[in-house]
Design a protein that fits this description.
The structure holds three protein chains of three kinds. Chain A has 13 helices and two strands; from the N terminus they run αββαααααααααααα. Chain A is an all-alpha fold. The two termini of chain A are 24 Å apart. Chain B is α/β, with parallel strands linked by helices. Chain B folds into two domains: 188 residues, D-Maltodextrin-Binding Protein, domain 2, CATH 3.40.190.10; 223 residues, D-Maltodextrin-Binding Protein, domain 2 (3-Layer(aba) Sandwich), CATH 3.40.190. Helices cover 43% and strands 13% of the residues of chain B. Chain B has 20 helices and 14 strands. In chain B, strands 1, 2, 3, 4, 7 and 13 form a six-stranded mixed beta sheet that branches. The chains are: A mainly alpha, B alpha/beta, C mainly alpha. At the B-C interface, α1, α2, β2, α3 and α13 of B face α2, α6, α11, α12 and β1 of C.
């Protein structure tokens, strides 16, 4: 019985696994070969396997650790802010959405713009002479800060990312909030729970799985941020806004250090797998 | 389900060892050009002229292909390295020639090319002593300045006194305003400071200059003439890296001083070509060093109403050794994996004739022609006379600037030098890092 | 009173999040001359010339082709991803299959910069003749979408009370029957959400669109800079703004349309519940 169940489940998962194997199997093998090879664009077809030099080069590169630190900070901060704002909006504004859906559509709009183009527009928006933000700041306050200076770039990028992707978290929370059965709320109201208490004791726990998923997705996306940062500040003065994706992209195309770029990705893949695996185990132990 | 082991290994072998079978012979000559701007318009015009020639048969007609401008070189790198035959002729640039040469074939130029361009310009398309491309456009830098402001400054005695005061305070000696064509970098710096409200509250402009300091390789090309004019070079004749020198220090310190004094917009560390132009066009900047490509917009009263009529251009200021402008060429060369090599060669040879070059220039391109060749179109394109003149007199390519890793060197300098300008590391560290990295890259 | 505060918060949030879009909209109606003189939001002399530039079809530039390409590859990349991920999500959520390794492994794909796959995929596509085809790009976008779609669907199925499955099993419904007849309808909001997010992600993808296409299958993100690149690395802001508006319109309309579907099904669910 147990065995037939397993076969059934396996069959259901097979198409996905097969698809990924077919499409990524070869690239993955090639990348693993590259990661232990001396390789350049001129020798793509004749990688010369030389051992773990690329890994050593990556691990001993301070820029790699700096990029990790940037990505980690950026990912955590933006994920938290996006989920907080998204949750707040979804719950606080819920009564507005009961009878009409157009306000939701308006909040969703920023998602429709490619981050690269969004970054491009911010180059205009924040420009001291051609952009509206500094224009109005000068007009009203007689001064405007450096938005992308060495000390402010991180915060500006955080704001740009948060403003574009809060709607993503908002939408997930909105779904989860709407899915809470009305009877539960009514029952709580009968027990005399106030709005705030109801939120803490009933609604939030019910939305917890969504919160975890939203945090995870937004963290991953923030961690691997590329397009908008690349367009706005590149890798930043002295490399100060180099996210891990930018680090790998630049190693790959700008420096032609393919082996190093791939090795960095392998390390990233292994590390994040370990983290996810650990989280997963932790979550299941909790459940028991 | 998935590949069988045997098939998979055969597949791997094919891809790794044998390369990819050439695609079916292509009917046309596909030319990959530089998208957007006058380069594209000009290429269209000459392609049309070429296709109209009676001796060009139907299956050798030129068809144009353009990629996106963002990531153009990265995409080209991937295409060439993988042996793509999607194009027969492709764009290349002086600074990237060494990177693409392994995937390209040298070309034959027409007999007229030598006289038409001159050796200096032809050499922007050479690698390892061989000609890899037909030069099409030349890029260099101008000093753009506000003629109205400088004239007013030179005519006003109180202003001159203030100018002397400011230069003494910041540069250590009293300077007098001069005609920009006679400027040294000190004159440039003094003017930049004088026209900065943070330094001189009476300044008519908010900033004296605008520096492009984003961590971007092209910005290093703009900056490096400061070092070059003091005698700086990437390496000496024996191949020793020579960036840790007074010349580089002076150039780097100049930018740092101007940035710290607030003589350039406070967001300059994220500025590149477009941002600098927008700042200048707003009328709040007195002078800047910028690519020649900006001239058309910045001197047009239609496109830049605030400054179009009062913007003038000269060659960049002089250092203690010389007056210098970075030059690099764009050109077209032959893809090694081309499907129609003969057709491509015929087109490239024709492209290097006088007739083609003149047509290209007339259609808006910016070829650097010899004085005798440029005279034919001097009336229509006076800017090309200036271009050819400056390239001949002040143009330079750093020793190693066309090598296989030139792009990586620029990237490295961009990262380390912007680190210094933004105050994250000191000058010695930046130069030491660059020296170490370059020794590795230019081995 | 509370309603007024809510509306105020809504307007402020909508304004802040949509600010770059508002600027883009205003900029798209400004001439190059006005952009360099008037940074404000108010357009003094509105012009349609930027839109005319974008919508004009020439032998090289064809925004409609780019839009059609984007639409085709995004549709393929989304539908295929959901079709593959839905049964797998069911197996993971209910059969606890691959929960320990397979799920993190796939989710991980979202964390790794996919640029490292660019060269091997390029070589593979070259071998298979998939370069510059909508099908090829659609396949890659499927890979891009699978992690996100899978997280959403696993999460959604896990949220459905197990009693529903049990009741169906007692009635003798097969596993696939449960998936398609019981779970899929209940999870419709999640499926539609993953379709929307997948479509948007695919529509906005840039890197593979750049690397894997040259002319026939160019998507709109890549085609965009064909229009606004000016000489020397400059940007024609007005045209760039118009391209952005045109490029964002299809996902906006689709998002709106799909959103109505989600809210519709949720209302229905609420009534039944």
């Amino acid at each position: 019985m147990e065995a037939t169940h397993r076969t059934e489940w396996t069959l259901l998962a097979t198409p996905l696994v097969a698809f990924l194997l077919v499409c990524l199997g070869f690239p993955a093998v090639v990348n693993l070969v590259y990661s232990v090879s001396q390789i350049s664009f001129a020798t793509l077809r004749q990688p010369e396997i030389t051992g773990f030099g690329n890994f050593v080069a990556v691990v001993s590169d301070t820029a790699f650790w700096r990029a990790n630190w940037f990505s980690l900070r950026f990912g955590l901060l933006t994920a938290l802010l996006e989920c907080l704002f998204g949750l707040g909006l979804a719950v606080f504004l819920a009564p507005l959405f009961k009878e009409r859906s157009w306000p939701i559509a308006i909040l969703m709009l920023p998602l429709m713009v490619a981050p690269a183009l969004m970054g491009l527009m911010y180059r205009l928006v924040l420009h001291e002479f051609a952009g509206p933000v500094p224009h109005y700041l000068w007009a009203w306050f007689g001064d405007s800060p450096a938005f992308l200076g060495p000390n402010s770039a991180f915060w500006t990028l955080t704001a740009v990312e948060t403003l574009q992707w809060t709607p993503f978290a908002f939408l997930l929370f909105h779904m989860a909030y709407q899915a809470i059965p009305t009877e539960l709320r009514e029952a709580a109201a009968l027990d005399g729970a106030t709005g705030l208490a109801r939120f803490w004791r009933i609604e939030l726990p019910l939305m917890l799985p969504t919160a975890v998923a939203a945090l995870l997705i937004r963290f991953i996306d923030g961690f691997r941020v590329f397009d908008n940062v690349y367009v706005l500040t590149g890798s930043g003065a002295g490399g100060s806004t180099t996210s891990l994706s930018i680090y790998i992209y630049e190693a790959f195309f700008k420096q032609g250090a393919i082996g190093k770029a791939v090795a960095a990705s392998v390390i990233l893949f292994a590390a994040s797998f370990a983290v996810l695996y650990g989280l997963n185990r932790l979550a299941r132990r909790r459940r028991r | 389900m998935t590949f069988s082991a045997a098939r998979a290994s055969r597949f791997l072998c094919t891809v790794f060892a044998a390369g990819v079978a050439a695609g079916a012979a292509q009917a046309e000559v596909t030319v990959l050009g530089w998208p957007g701007g006058p380069e594209e318009t000009a290429l269209r015009a000459v392609a049309e002229a070429y296709n109209a020639r009676p001796e060009v048969s139907g299956d050798n007609k030129v068809e144009l292909l353009f990629f996106n401008r963002d990531g153009f070189w990265d995409k080209l790198q991937a295409d060439l390295a993988a042996g793509s035959d999607a194009f027969d002729v492709n764009l290349l640039a002086t600074y990237s020639i060494g990177r693409y040469a392994p995937f390209m074939e040298p070309v034959e130029l027409s007999g007229e090319a030598q006289d038409l361009y001159g050796e200096a310009v032809l050499s922007t398309m050479q690698f390892d002593g061989r000609q890899y491309g037909v030069p099409t456009d030349l890029s260099l830098h101008f000093l753009y300045y506000r003629k109205d402001l400088i004239d007013a400054l030179m005519a006003d005695e109180t202003a001159k006194a203030r100018y002397a005061e400011i230069s003494e305070e910041h540069l250590g000696r009293k300077l007098e305003p001069k005609d920009p064509n006679d400027w040294s970098w000190d004159d440039y710096a003094a003017t930049a400071l004088y026209f900065t409200q943070a330094v001189n509250p009476d300044s008519p402009t908010r900033y004296g200059t605008v520096l492009q300091m984003k961590n971007l390789l092209f910005n290093i090309m703009v900056w490096q003439s400061t070092a070059r004019s003091e005698g700086g070079d990437w390496r000496d004749a024996d191949g020793r890296i020579t960036v840790n020198s007074d010349a580089f220090r002076k150039g780097l310190e100049l930018y740092k001083m101007l940035y710290d004094a607030g003589a350039t917009p406070r967001d300059s560390l994220s500025y590149e070509f477009a941002e600098a132009n927008a700042a200048f066009a707003s009328g709040q900047v007195a002078a800047m060093v910028q690519w020649n490509a900006a001239a058309a917009d910045l001197t047009s009263a239609e496109k830049s109403p605030a400054v179009g009529e009062v913007t003038a251009t000269v060659a960049p200021p002089a250092g203690s050794e010389s007056r210098a402008t970075h030059i690099h060429g764009l050109g077209l060369g032959l893809n090694k994996s081309a499907g129609n090599k003969d057709g491509a060669k015929a087109f490239l040879e024709w492209l290097s004739t006088r007739q083609a070059a003149i047509a290209y220039a007339k259609a808006g391109g910016a070829p650097a022609l010899s004085p005798q060749a440029v005279s034919e179109i001097a009336e229509e394109r006076p800017d090309l006379v200036q271009l050819g003149e400056y390239a001949g007199a002040f143009g330079y390519v750093m020793n190693g600037g066309a090598s296989a890793n030139a792009l990586a060197v620029y990237e490295l300098q961009a990262k380390e030098f912007t680190g210094y300008w933004s105050g994250q590391q000191d000058l010695d560290t930046a130069l030491a890092n660059v020296e170490r990295g370059m020794a590795e890259l230019l081995k | 009173m509370l309603a007024t505060i809510r509306w105020t918060v809504f307007v402020l949030a909508a304004f802040a999040m949509n600010f770059p879009l508002i600027v883009t909209l205003a900029t798209s109606f400004k001439s190059a001359r006005e952009i360099s003189t008037n940074p404000g939001l108010w357009v003094q002399a509105p012009t349609l010339s930027n839109y005319l530039t974008v919508l004009q079809v020439s032998d090289r530039l064809n925004i409609f082709l780019y839009l059609a390409n984007s639409f085709a590859v995004a549709a393929l990349g989304t539908l295929l991803a959901v079709a593959l991920a839905l049964p797998a999500a069911y197996a993971i959520a209910r059969g606890r299959l691959g929960e320990k390794t397979l799920l993190p492994l796939i989710v991980n794909l979202r964390a790794v910069p996919l640029v490292i796959f660019a060269i091997p995929i390029y070589m593979m596509f070259q071998f298979l003749g998939l370069l510059d085809t909508r099908f090829g790009l659609g396949l890659v976008l499927t890979i891009v979408n699978i992690p996100l779609v899978l997280i959403i669907l696993v999460n959604a199925i896990a949220d459905v009370p197990y009693e529903l499955d049990e009741a169906a099993m007692i009635d003798g419904v097969s596993r696939t029957g449960i998936l398609f007849r019981i779970l899929a309808p209940v999870c419709r909001p999640a499926i539609v959400t993953s379709l929307i997010f997948g479509f948007i992600t695919a529509w906005n993808e840039f890197l593979f669109g750049l690397m894997l296409t040259t002319s026939k299958a160019v998507p709109v993100t890549v085609g965009a800079s064909f229009f606004f690149a000016a000489s020397g690395g400059g940007v024609q802001w007005g045209v760039a703004a118009a391209v952005m508006m045109v490029g964002a319109l299809p996902p906006m309309l689709l998002g709106l349309f799909m959103y109505r579907k989600i809210s519709g099904t949720m209302m229905a669910g609420a009534v039944k519940g």
